[in-house]
Amino acid sequence: MKGYNVAVVGATGAVGNEMVKVLEQRDFPVKKLKLLASERSIGRELTFRGKTIPVDVLNEDSFNGIEIGLFSAGGSVSEKFAPIAAAAGCIVIDNTSAFRMVPDIPLVVPEVNPEAIALYKNKGIIANPNCSTIQMVVALKPIHDAVRIKRIVVSTYQAVSGTGKKAIEELSQQTRALLNFQDPVVKVYPHQIAFNCLPQIDVFLENGYTKEEMKMVNETKKILNDQTIAVTATTVRVPVFYGHSESVNIETQKKITAREVRELLSKAPGVLVVDDPAEKKYPLAIDAAGRDETFVGRIREDESIPSGINMWIVSDNIRKGAALNAVQIAEILANQYL
Ligand code: A2P
Fold it and tell me: What pLDDT digit, counting tens, does each position of 221-270 carry?
């Protein structure tokens, strides 16, 4: 089998690190793995398939001879280096929001719109969607295909790992400080995150929504390839380390029962239905952490409208929400296009 030279940009970060793990766990045909980060990481090394690999400093020559680049080092790094990598013949799978809404750049969730990967040829870049959007569309796609979704109302409960390593550290430090009657240090988020919920993820836009909320609105339409779906979102950061949870309400064109949704989703790729209220079984962030599936439960009919469904959707934001989705895209690229 052909092997590929792969680079991970941001390899020392929360998502980059997971990308290296997922490449190994899924036995992706890596010929050579290049790990890239900033000068801060000089001297660091990571383990891949039992061997240590040094972390190199990202520069304009980093992509010579590299065929696939997995980027997760922030939007400004992608804006500068993804086009440089693409010009060097490296296909970029970009986890930042830098290119997601560029019309001729595909925005891909393999369970939903794998066919869009073909458009990588336009710019040499494929965008990996926002973590909250990925898990939502994985669960909603089979329902949309069956009965057409007219409107989505989503509220999220998002883990701090989505912000990166510094935020994971901030939640643990604040928790430790508060339990020891000390003042928490607030650096990463605008307010204390320990023992709190922050109804702000990313910056506010002119319409009063946050950028994260508008990502969910716009990316959902692009991935489902349907501009007619009405989407409205409230995104909230909660003191959870791994796993985003979402309360999702949908209104459908055709009536669908809760039982039919359960049946549909139990056959859907990437979805695991956990829905047994009598046994107190429903998806939990702590159970989803480290897992690949998108977990769906609390499926029930919205009794306030003629055809609507409520559900609770949970997934590991670092895996399916980022690293796993990117590697799944790389697998399809390798199997079908390279
Ligand atoms: P470094 O560890 O050298 O700072 P996280 O999302 O967990 O904060 O991780 C961000 C990742 O992006 C890290 O691997 C970080 O490397 C990397 N990164 C941030 N800024 C740059 C940059 N200017 N050039 C290269 N890598 C960067």
Answer: 999 999 999 999 999 999 999 999 999 999 999 999 999 999 999 999 99
SS (H, E, C) 24-48: HHCCCCEEEEEEEECHHHCCCEEEE
**CA gap 259, 216 in Å, rounded:** 27
Pocket of ligand 1 contains residue 41 by CB under 6 Å: yes
| Res 2: pLDDT | 86
Ligand 1 midpoint to CA 58 (Å): 10
Calpha distance 246→57 (Å, rounded): 37
Residues contacting residue 130 through CB under 8 Å, at least 6 positions apart: 97, 100, 212, 215, 216, 219, 321
pTM: 0.97
How many whole angstroms separate alpha carbon 246 and alpha carbon 316? 12
Distance 337 CA to ligand 1 centre (A): 30
**Residue 78: what are its φ and ψ, rounded to 5°?**
-65, -45
- Alpha carbons 296 and 135: distance in angstroms, whole number: 10
CB atoms within 10 A of CB 173: 15
d(CA 246, CA 321): 13
Edge-to-edge strand list for the sheet holding 149-158: 230-237, 149-158, 244-252, 308-315, 294-301, 271-273
Is there a catalytic annotation at residue 90?
Answer: no
The answer to whether 99 touches 78, Cβ cutoff 8 Å, is yes
Per-residue pLDDT tens over the stretch 42-77? 999 999 999 999 999 999 999 999 999 999 999 999
Look-up: residue for tokens 């609507």? 308
